[in-house]
Structure formats: structure tokens, C-alpha cells
Specification:
Blueprint: E1 8-12, H1 17-28, E2 32-37, H2 40-49, E3 55-59, H3 65-79, E4 84-87, H4 102-129, E5 134-137
Parallel strand pairs: 1-2, 1-4, 2-3, 4-5
């Protein structure tokens, strides 16, 4: 798959690390970027690295299905299709099991499992509109 100026790439979890590096690489390829992260400040840090590209920045929680569905509708109206979806958003727990609350595990599953499901399902129609499209799901060993 050749990514370039006409390509639209959606990347989640772009506040730092791998997601930010992927966004920077795709910007160098000339892609139009749709960047998602729950952290407003992290999005701003990434925005500062991407001055010379076409990008939209969306502060939302991938674990919230209505937010992801709304974003997919917005991108459908603006772009018509998506060539690449990178599900990079992920979280982890570092505390001992007995010290973790059930809400910690619900949060973990919300982002790491449901966030991927919601994003894939919401953007699948846009991926199918592209001539050639890919989904890349990333999850760290800690998550």
C-alpha cells in the first residue's frame, strides 16, 4: 500500500510515543491526518510537531462509542473515505490485582478492547470506500 498526498489516515493515541511517531511519519508521507487522543495537552504537543501537514485533532475517548461514531460521520462528510486506520490508543494498570478496583478493569477494557471495536466498526464503511485500505491494531505488552 502506497500512502501519499491523497491518503487519509486516522490514528488514535497520538499524545506521545508510538502514536506520535506514526503521526509524524504519515505527515512526512503527505497523508491527511485525523488524530485522536483523550489528552488535550498531548494533542497540542503533537500538533506542534506537525506544522506542515493537513491534520485535524480530536480530543475524545475511544471507549465512548457515540464520540467515535460522530467522528466517523464527520470524516465521511469531509473526506469520503479512509485509507488507513491505526488503533494505537491503549492503557495499562500497574497496581496489584487486589488493590485495583473493578472500575479500573472496566476502564482498561473500555479503551483496549471496546475502543478498538468501536473504531473499527465506525470507520469500516469509510475504509471500504477507499481503493486500498488497511487497519493496524497496536497494543503494548503492558496494556
Amino acid at each position: 500500500m502506497q500512502l501519499g498526498v491523497q491518503s487519509v489516515a486516522v490514528v488514535t493515541g497520538v499524545e506521545n510515543g508510538v502514536g506520535q511517531a506514526i503521526a509524524c511519519h504519515l505527515a512526512k508521507c503527505g497523508c491527511r491526518l485525523v488524530l485522536v487522543d483523550i489528552d488535550h495537552e498531548g494533542l497540542d504537543r503533537t500538533r506542534k510537531l506537525l506544522d506542515d501537514c493537513t491534520a485535524s485533532f480530536h480530543a475524545l475517548d475511544v471507549a465512548k462509542r457515540p464520540a467515535i461514531e460522530s467522528l466517523a460521520v464527520e470524516i465521511a462528510n469531509e473526506c469520503g473515505c479512509v485509507d488507513l486506520l491505526v488503533n494505537n490508543a491503549g492503557v495499562s494498570l500497574a497496581d496489584r490485582f487486589e488493590k485495583s478496583d473493578i472500575t479500573d478493569f472496566e476502564w482498561l477494557m473500555g479503551v483496549n478492547f471496546w475502543g478498538v471495536i468501536y473504531t473499527c466498526r465506525s470507520f469500516l464503511p469509510l475504509l471500504r470506500e477507499a481503493k486500498e485500505a488497511r487497519i493496524c491494531n497496536i497494543l503494548s505488552g503492558f496494556a
